[in-house]
Amino acid sequence: MAFAASIVWLDIIANEAVALMENLGVLMDISTGVLGLTVLAVGNSVGDLVADTSFARAGLAKMAVASCFGSPLLNDMLGLGKAPQPYAIYLSAQCTNTTVVHRTPLKQVLTYCTQQK
Questions:
Q1: In degrees, to the nearest 5, what angle opens at C-alpha 106 toward C-alphas 82 and 21?
Q2: HEC profile for 97-110?
Q3: How far apart are alpha carbons 74 and 48 in whole angstroms?
Q4: CA distance 100 to 76
Q5: What are 20-32's pLDDT values in tens digits?
Q6: Domain spans of the chain?
Q7: What is the DSSP-derived secondary structure letter of residue 116?
Q8: Which of 57, 90, 93, 105 is least surrounded by Cβ atoms within 10 Å, i.e. has the fewest?
Q9: From residue 65, how far is each of 41, 42, 75, 76, 99 by CA, in Å?
Q10: How many CB atoms lie under 10 A from the CB of residue 25?
């Protein structure tokens, strides 16, 4: 229960931080694309920088190098799970009739297209 609560809190705080940066970008007339490529990307990498530097200073050079490659690789591998989502939304828009196959506890619904437009 505590783990789930911490995930929910992290999600809320992260969404608020991104919304705050977007609002600051609107106030300063900076596009969201520029913010995403610079400020938010740097903020996403600071934790890795601190961890890798602390490993290297502690004399764990192999661990630091492994962390340099492993952390972004893990992010990419987990992030690729979201890559097909826009295509799935497009396919669901092509259906006129769907059947619910499964509902998950997080309200994700697996549907089956029974008739296309």
A1: 55
A2: EEEEEEECCCCCEE
A3: 12
A4: 30
A5: 888 888 888 888 8
A6: 2-83, 84-117
A7: E
A8: 105
A9: 20, 19, 16, 17, 48
A10: 18
